[in-house]
């Protein structure tokens, strides 16, 4: 080893290496950007990048236009930097946080991938057109399409949680909105459609969708009743029997006067009212009486199923009305009638009822009628029909009358026909007392 180091040639080689090393250190300049330096390794490239908007208050403004919609970028960097970059890393933005309605020229902001440098952006600005928005409240309208199963009816749609929404549009478009809603098919349905989620849309008067409308909330829950056919009819109260002795009804107030009847349409068409029978002999005192409503097939249901009636019962009083005129019905053509008993041709009636009702009774409020239907010439004992206000009862007075029916032409007997002579034909006991028969479903005054 010592021999090699002491060799002249080795010493010369070592000296040459040291000289070259010293020269390199002295002449190397890392900041040198000449074509022969590191900069000769950089590349340039061009990109077309779409302009993105940032910060627009979309509740109050709408971007109508941005021009141009994209810009040209020229950047530089090493091949490695270009290889590592992604298209989405090239971002060109315009900040719209402070803009208001109108046309504005805005500076662009450029963000590049790491390692790349911007050389040129063309153009450097864009023009944006901003339109103010208006928000207005509308009621939701749900339409149905198709037909339910035979015999079923579609009820009014129920919208939850509310049937009102807010619609945002440019001011010029908001007046074009005719309705907000959706359509739901009920084709073939036999039961109520529940919790149906529907997406709302804004429609103009021609039924065309307004595409750019912003609706809040955009989706609602809808329930559509699908029911059997129904009909709302009044109640007709029928008072049966008599009140216990000494008692009379003073007031009569049902909680409802109409009910809803469900069933086939042909059956509903025949129903005009629902009868409610009230047995007076079971009404002992004032209070509430509950009466179930009865029905039979093909009726399916009555709603409500029962009604409550508040009845006030008081001690009875009596009142007599004298000299009431008697009218008749059913008299045949060519016949005249004469009342022979009572001789004055008038009726005296004694009436029982609650004192308050009797006090307001007038003679003109009572009708006394004799029915002469089907009777020819002769003398007859005719029961009287006394029409009284509700909750009154005839307890005395004239119950029947004797009449003589006279023909303009003497009657001739046909074979086998009995013709009344001088004898009286008795037509039976006294007529109506005012406590039996139908009573319209109206509360007493």
Automatic annotation (TrEMBL):
<feature type="region of interest" description="Disordered">
    <location>
        <begin position="411"/>
        <end position="445"/>
    </location>
</feature>
<dbReference type="Pfam" id="PF07949">
    <property type="entry name" value="YbbR"/>
</dbReference>
<dbReference type="InterPro" id="IPR012505">
    <property type="entry name" value="YbbR"/>
</dbReference>
<dbReference type="InterPro" id="IPR053154">
    <property type="entry name" value="c-di-AMP_regulator"/>
</dbReference>
<feature type="compositionally biased region" description="Low complexity">
    <location>
        <begin position="416"/>
        <end position="428"/>
    </location>
</feature>
<protein>
    <recommendedName>
        <fullName>CdaA regulatory protein CdaR</fullName>
    </recommendedName>
</protein>
